[in-house]
Amino acid sequence: MAPGVLHRVIHGTHDPEPWQKSLLTVRPALLQSYRRHRVRHADYPAILPHTNSCVRGSVVTGLTEGDLYRLDIFEGDQYTRQKVKVQVLSKDVGLDQAADVESNTQVIEEVEAETYIWQAGEDTLERKEWDFEEFKRDKMKAWMGMAEGDDSADMDEGFADVDRAVAEQDSAEQEKGKDPMGGRGANGHITRQLKEAAV
User: Fold this and answer.
1) Choosing a second label site near 51 at 20 to 30 A (CA), which of 43, 85, 118, 192?
2) Per-residue pLDDT tens for 35-60?
3) Per the record, where are the segments of Acidic residues compositional bias (predicted)?
4) DSSP per residue over 84-140, as a string?
5) Residue 51, Cβ density class (10 Å: 0-12 exposed, 13-18 middle, ≥19 buried)
6) Which of 40, 78, 37, 36 has its CA nearest to residue 178?
7) Contact, 30 vs 92, CB < 8 A?
């Protein structure tokens, strides 16, 4: 749902070349019988099976095996990639618009897709739904590696804003499992793995 984060993971920058962007097709979709929660002490969401619930998201096609490899590293061992059936909605949109399509669009088809299902236990999740608008407003730039306050900034290789935020956390939050980026920040173990896996 967050194009800059997806591009950062698979292309190494939040704003790749137009030809790289053109390789992906994004359609809004619904995942029935799942619920999205915020992970405790983190900025990111997780989904779990849940009867009578639905998760709004995007179906992205055009991903390569290399892209999936990098996404698997990024998601880490808290998630497993699993096959699911999703309902594709009627309006084709760009990646940056997929989360904003009005809810009354019609289902045009059901397709098989893969998604990342939370494996670290329901007790590690908050009861409330993860708020995508709050994430976009308050956290997205850090997750894309952009300098604070500069919408056109190139990727900040040092993730200075992320490092600063982590350094300011009190020692209780720095215990294992309390990293709000779950190892995905500039100095996190997942970011190091992504750099080592750069193709």
Assistant:
1) 43
2) 999 999 888 899 999 999 999 999 99
3) 149-160
4) EEEEEES----GGGGGGS-TTPPEEEEEEEEEEEE-S-GGGB-SSPP-HHHHHHHTH
5) exposed
6) 40
7) no
> 11-48 b/e with 16+ CB inside 10 Å = b?
bbebbbeeeebeebebbbbbbeebbbbbbebbbbbbbb
End-to-end CA distance of the chain: 24
Residue with token string 């618009």:
97
Q: Which residues are catalytic?
A: 75
Amino acid at 35: R
pTM reported for the whole predicted model: 0.70
Q: State how far the Cα of 24 lies from the Cα of 9, in Å rounded to an integer.
A: 14
Give the distance, in angstroms, between the CA of residue 40 and the centroid of all CA atoms in the same chain: 16
**CA gap 49, 82 in Å, rounded:** 12
Q: Provide CB contacts within 8 A for 194, sequence distance 6+.
A: 9, 70, 73, 74
